[in-house]
Write a structure and sequence with these properties.
CATH superfamily: Leucyl/phenylalanyl-tRNA-protein transferase, C-terminal domain
CATH topology: Aminopeptidase
Number of domains: 1
Strand content: 25-35%
Helix content: 25-40%
Largest sheet: 7 strands, mixed
CATH class: Alpha Beta
Order of helices and strands: HEEEHEHHEEEHEHEH
Shape: globular
């Protein structure tokens, strides 16, 4: 088995068990599998929007699109960031998620300023689960605006679980919480019973 490029089927099977991959940048992109405890989720009725950010949303500074440039989003997410010169998004990761996109399981949410991609996120939809993988921004608030639109779409389509994997101070301010892995797995079982479509 290629340790740097899991198959699409293996990836879907892993998500259904609450496991996700990350490549190790110092080991030539070798894939490791994770099921953190606690697990970070964003309750779909619990996103926090500050007064300032609400005003920004009203101005509609970007055009938000879905699935029009998946490869552009994952490439941007893989770019080095301040204090983070290496990335877990290896070539093998890009390839398999792009395949999942072609198969209808991986999706992107994109913020556009004219014809310039200025922010976005991507993840995997399976049943009533959306597993968020990564996000990026090249303009202030662009990735947060994508997250708002993602939550709106998931609610409209009947999804029940938005997994963001790990907690950060930035995500905590947006309403992300941590739950025990056992609780996450119980929610995952119920989410996978749902027949939801992202598009």
């Amino acid at each position: 088995m290629d340790v740097t490029r899991p198959s699409a089927q293996l990836l879907l099977s892993a998500y259904a068990q609450g496991i996700f991959p990350m490549a190790h940048p110092e080991e030539e992109g070798r894939i490791y599998w994770y099921a953190p405890d606690p697990r970070a989720i964003l309750p779909l009725n619990g996103m926090r929007i500050s007064r300032r950010f609400r005003q920004t949303l009203r101005k509609k500074p970007f055009e938000v699109r879905f699935n029009t440039d998946f490869e552009g989003v994952i490439e941007a997410c893989a770019e080095p960031r301040p204090g983070q010169p290496q990335t877990w998004i290896s070539e093998g990761i890009k390839e398999v998620y792009t395949e999942l996109h072609r198969l209808g399981f991986a999706h992107s949410v994109e913020a556009w300023e004219g014809e310039r991609l200025v922010g976005g996120l991507y993840g995997v939809a399976l049943g009533g689960l959306f597993a968020g993988e990564s996000m990026f921004h090249r303009a202030t608030d662009a990735s947060k605006i994508c997250l708002v639109h993602l939550v709106e779409r998931l609610n409209a389509r009947g999804f029940s679980l938005l997994d963001v994997q790990f907690q950060t101070s930035h995500l905590e301010r947006l309403g992300v919480i941590e739950i025990p892995r056992e609780d996450y797995e119980a929610r995952l079982v119920e989410a996978l019973k749902l027949d939801c479509t992202f598009d």
